[in-house]
Structure formats: structure tokens, C-alpha cells
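Structure catalogue
Derive C-alpha cells from sequence
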Amino acid sequence: MNEKQLIEGCCKMNRTMQKAFFDYYYKSVFRLARRYISDFHEIEDVVIIVFNKALKNIVHFEYRGEGSLGKWLNTITINESIRALKKVRAIHFKEEIIEEAPVCFDNTVLDIEKIYQILEKMPKGYRTVFNLYAIDGYTHSEIAEALNISRNTSKSQLLKARKFIIKELSKGQSYGT
């Protein structure tokens, strides 16, 4: 079954197609939300909201080729994750600019669980900016607008996130072995 068939079935409120849609995209939505949110129950809440919104609004979705449905769902997930972060507790950002220094690290192979562990330990502000910038490809201007912070705060939080990751990786050189 392809995306177009899933979309058509979900638009017709076909329960079998809606379940297939959920089953197909659940893991990717959960993983994406997990990058932003560390509490399992909050992640599950976001996943439920994402699928409710997606199924409610799928009739308005404009299909633009294979992969466009997944990208649309990722956008909803990122937005809902940020909304959840703002709702639960305020994200604290420190307003300071630090000159960026080039960082080198060996080509250690990390498993995905270790990466999630590092992200979960990271302060919420760092984690949110890091995910938006380094993984999801947002610009500092877009991050500033989404989080209602300055571009410089976004840059500072990204630098701090990178330093945090390097510090955590340095603690456990055995991550990849």
C-alpha cells in the first residue's frame, strides 16, 4: 500500500486504512517526539495529538509525491513537541553569546539508544534547539520565531548543546565498543 492509497482511505474515514496509517507511521512519530521530549507519558500524549490532528486534517493535505505525507507528519510532530514543551514547563534559555570553536571527535559508532540517553540528559533548551537545527534543518531565524527567542539565544543554545554532547561522549569512550 502506498501513501496515496493511505491518504484516500483515511479521507474516506476507512478505519482499516486509518489503522494502517497509524501502524506505518507510529514508530517514526514516536522517535521524533522522543528527540524533543524525555518523559515517556508526554511523548505518548504528543503521538496521540499528532495522529488525531493528522487524521482530522488529512482531507486538506496536498499530496506532492511519495514521502510528502511523512514530511507533513514530521512537521506536525515537531510543532506538537514544541507546544508540549512550552505547556509543561517553560524552556529556560541563557542569554549569552559564546564564540564557536571548531570541534573534532573521532569516528566512533554510537548506537541509537546511547544517542537518546545523551539527548534525554541534555537540558530542555539545548535539546530543543539542537534537534531543530542539527537534525531537522531549521535556521536560527526559524528557531527564534518558533520558540519566541532571539537568534543569538538559538546560536548560544546550539553551541552549549554541542559542548554537552562532546562532554558526554568524552565520559564514555566505550559508547561505540
